[in-house]
Amino acid sequence: MTAPVEAGAKGVGASLPRKEDDRLMRGRGDYVANRRVVGLQEVAFVRSPMAHARVLAVRKPEGAEQQVFVLADLEGVKPIVAVCGLPGFRVSELQVLAGDIVRYVGEPIAMCVAATRAEAEDLAELVEVDLEPLPVVADMLAALTPDSPKVHAHWERNAFLESMVDDDLSAVKRDAAIVVRRTVRTARQCMAPIEGRAVVAEYDRRLDQLVVHSATQMPHINRTGIAECLGIDQASVRVVAPDVGGGFGYKGILLAEEICLGWYARRTGRPVRWLEDRYEHLSGNANCREHHYDITGYADASGRLLGIDCEAVVDAGAYSLYPFSACLESAQVSSILPGPYVMDRYRCHTYAAATNKPPILPYRGVARTGVCFAMELVLDAIAREAGREPWEVRMANVVPSDAMPYTNITNKYFDSGDYPECLRRTVAALDVPAWRARQKRGEPDGRRVGIGLAIFCEQAAHGTSVYHGWGIPMVPGHEQCFARLSPDGALELRIGAHSHGQGMETTLAQVANEVLGIDPARVRLIHGDTALTPYSTGTWGSRSMVMSGGAVAAACTVIAERVKAIAAHLLEAAPADLELADGDVRVSGTDHSMTLQEVAHAWYRQPQRMPPDIDPSGLETTAGYKAVRDTGTFSYACHACAVAVDTELGTVEILDYVIVEDGGTLVNPMIVDGQVYGGLAQGIGSALFEEMPFNADAQPLASTLADYMLPGATEMPTVRMEHMTIPSPITRFGQKGIGEGGAVAPPAAIANAVNDALHDLGVEITECPITPRRLLAALAEAKAGR
Amino acid sequence: MKAPHFEYEKPATLADALRLLSAGGDNAKVLAGGQSLGPLLNLRMARPDLLVDIRTLPELRACEDDADSVTLGAAVTHAAIEDGQVPDPTHGLLARVAQGIAYRAVRNRGTLGGSLAHADPAADWVTTMVLLDAELRVAGADGERVLRVEDLVEGPLSTCLAPDEIIVSVRLPRLSADARWSYYKFNRKPGEFAEAIAAVVHDPARGVVRAVLGAMEGAPHVIPDPHALLGGDIDALAADIVTRSGFAPDTYEHRVHAVTLRRAVAGLA
Amino acid sequence: MTRIALKVNGQAVERDVAPRRNLVDFLRDELNLTGTNVGCEHGVCGACTLEIDGAPARSCIAFAVACDGASVRTIEGFDDDPVMIELRAAFNAEHALQCGYCTPGMLVTARDIVTRLPDADEARIREELSGNLCRCTGYVGIVRAIVSVMAARKSSGGGR
Ligand SMILES: Cc1cc2nc3c(=O)[nH]c(=O)nc-3n(C[C@H](O)[C@H](O)[C@H](O)COP(=O)(O)OP(=O)(O)OC[C@H]3O[C@@H](n4cnc5c(N)ncnc54)[C@H](O)[C@@H]3O)c2cc1C
Ligand code: FES
Ligand code: FES
Prior knowledge:
The complex is a heterotrimer of chains A (786), B (269) and C (160). With 269 residues, chain B is of the alpha+beta class. Chain B contains 9 helices and 14 strands. Chain B is globular, with a radius of gyration of 19 Å. Chain C has a 5-stranded mixed sheet, covered by helices on one side. In chain C, strand 1 (2-8) and strand 2 (11-17) form a beta hairpin. The interface between A and C is large, with 58 and 57 residues.
């Protein structure tokens, strides 16, 4: 649980209830699908039923020529190209509607427009598509073999990118008393926000502007991408992201659908909408987390890590998407695999393999979930070889407390933290001896109990130097906020990032309170509209609280100074003697004060009262924020759990779950907890339930939420959480990005617990999700092998 | 996805419903709770020209309670059974099974008859009603017939009902006071369809022992010699029964069905 | 098109609808009641849960024509409902929502749990919630909120 908040406090550190809740709880949320527009038509897409095929012909139904559109109709529209600047990157082009070749099931082929979605789907059924099947590349490992068919015919190899962190491992190979080599695999997943993607495109004649309402995490980036693909000025496009029903990375992308709808609205002047349905989402957009590792850990006899050697493959699907590209994930694998550990030598070879599957997107935690899974399984295997408790071996390998700040083997700068303490507190909270005793006793119901843990660190809010190094089309820079104290003393904040569950309408108001002393109830956040907000790369990478929080503080600081300058004149005091608190400007140590409202009123309505040398810029400003260094904050956490495994049915029940994490200064501890809990549920999904299987033809085998299982309330254990709150030295308030971490460790912690439970039976799971089918197969195999 | 075009009728009587169905031929379909048909329509996997809504027909809502049986109207909802709003001749088995079907919002609409007619191999009522050896009253254009539920299901989502037949009611024998039952369902999460079901009823006073495996590839499997389950080496027996039911040994399906059967038998005690 | 007459949030409504129009689209697109969200259209996610004749139901797999004569209550119809007022306060206090997309359906289900099963323990509450998926919160705040409302109603004697 989080520390209790000082009663009445509303600034940084307060668990203030959220301002955004009321409208959402009364059905007044404003999601894209809620937009009412006269004459709105709906779109359904004809999508490829085959994973790889030549498009011989697309025939429109007779009489529907003005309602059905193919690529040839989209004059001047450019394909989506996301080039990564790393050497050797192979470039793909995604036409917004299929060109000659389709490369995954679900790729859009034609756009059908009708009065209702049902009628648009009727139309889509009548479109005749002649496809000539081409050889399918369904598996990422097979894709990399020399004789594999090619996803892009002119490529030499099915790889967007190969990257290498090389090192000489001969010494560690010679010295290692323990060598463990494992093959680790994580399944392809769907991010599955409950709201799908959604786009409404309209044309504003007066402004000659395409207005696109889109459920996106990064409206400014979408605007840039839409303008580029349509070949028009960015000023001719406005993107609005209203309330968005969950993102998790799924909505951090430029959509082919946005471009098609934008083209249509501009060409016809008529508004259209497309709402992605669950069938489209599951069957055509399973697009994250599929990794394969061949990883070897070298350690001395005590379990101290000497080196890691890894070949990692990320299944990147068929195309490189904008703005994160097909290579962010694999490049990240090699740079973050070492995690929180110290080691002498490190070698990692990664591939972003191209397959005939949906293109990938970075999902909450991006590569970290897979990387943590691989690394933490290896650490446990080393511990077993060394005959030590897994936590002891970790203790011997994490960056020591006194080494912080620390630059690790891949040159990551860990800004702050105490990893050993995090481990200690986790192990204490789980009560390892009690579980070991229970394990010895055995369960009355015959299940097997095990405990497992995983520790990781999470680079967040990282900026230019890191992204520039990855060479992707979007490099985050700084972040701005526009702030205005209005004549009634209320504060308006405008930011270019987007809040879709993170509660920024509340937390950024807390930041304003911290600086200006204004009641958060009097702060209004405007975000998600390119016409109204400063440019921003958006909300992703756990960057908003650091970057937008920093920007809000910067803007409020400017306003505070200007408020003081006015108040000093009116109160006949020196600006330096003034303090801002509780909505007042007060002369320190006196009860001589005036309200912010009175100051604002004077500025706007009684300029005659201003001093002659007043700064005429007034009570509004745009200010920017730049972190002390842009290498990112490193939050970290240790997850530990106890599970009971039913070896007869292959089911896993989580009996206890403990998280100790360090998010630095917590702006709103309640919201931080919520982010971690939500991440945990997704991590449990990765660990035990979520998987999009594909057959040999790369056909997706789950098309409803009954086949693709998301964790529900019964799958979520009761969680115990502790915070360490060691401030980051590089951010405005010491806050660290924490939005993703909850989803990183659960597969590793749970798999380690399962393996702990089944160790005696000779079972070691190295693949997730750990389904009953997989677990029973492993148990049977172990039994047969003994 | 949105449902394809269809026409809709809501007749006031069973006779009208039957007339509409025969006139509609193969492309007319009954709509009850819509909790299976609705998803199929939305996915365009069902394409009827006409839906005949029978959910509120009084003939399908009536229940009867006599000395040795209870008759439940086909349009009785899972929730009504869960809440005990209709008679239960099984001392709780029905309510217990009902509570484990889907989610409350689905149970409020989904019906007993709809579940049986839909014949999903993993459906709970299909297995339960075969276990209890229930009988259906089925009405068609040519009159009514009575059918054992055991003879209803022919395969996954397929029954021996003609397209213009309607299940009117389900008649369940009354279990004796000292009868015991056990129902074990293995599913991944609540509301998910079962991966395996096994159910046993032992009613010595009526000389009845029945045991059924559900969530098969097709119809539930009625275990031919259920008495053997009441004593003896259940591990070997269960494996053997599951093999004879059609699952190859050493497969996932075989394993989970065998375990489920053992647990159902153990649950009887 | 078929003529239907029903009550929506207490008000009589008469409209012509295409038989294939599902209830949630009818409410959203024809009655402008956009509070009920759509998450799957196959009955699993629970985002579209509302009340038909006083009982929770999935509006994505109910057809508007089949609701002729029914009384439908959407999240917008619970503004003044005393139980819902308590639930909203508890959801706010316990951080039971993030993006809010699942929330209308979640609240309708939560209200059903509180009123129908006043003695439910946490395990039962979780089971009853299993038909409403939330991708944001991990259900922690939702469960806590429902537990707290049930406890408060019990101690005040309000729990019927
Ligand atoms: C999310 C979800 C989860 C579910 N989980 C489960 C589960 O765990 N276990 C389970 O058993 N079920 C489950 N179901 C299915 C549910 O129980 C359905 O209610 C049931 O299968 C169908 O009943 P219905 O009244 O809704 O029928 P409908 O959907 O209206 O009809 C289904 C079929 O039966 C025909 N039909 C309906 N009534 C009759 C009749 N009286 N005579 C002849 N034909 C008729 C229809 O023409 C149609 O073909 C689930 C459903 C959903 C949406
Ligand atoms: S939208 Fe109705 S249950 Fe998902
Ligand atoms: S709050 Fe986002 S889905 Fe529940």
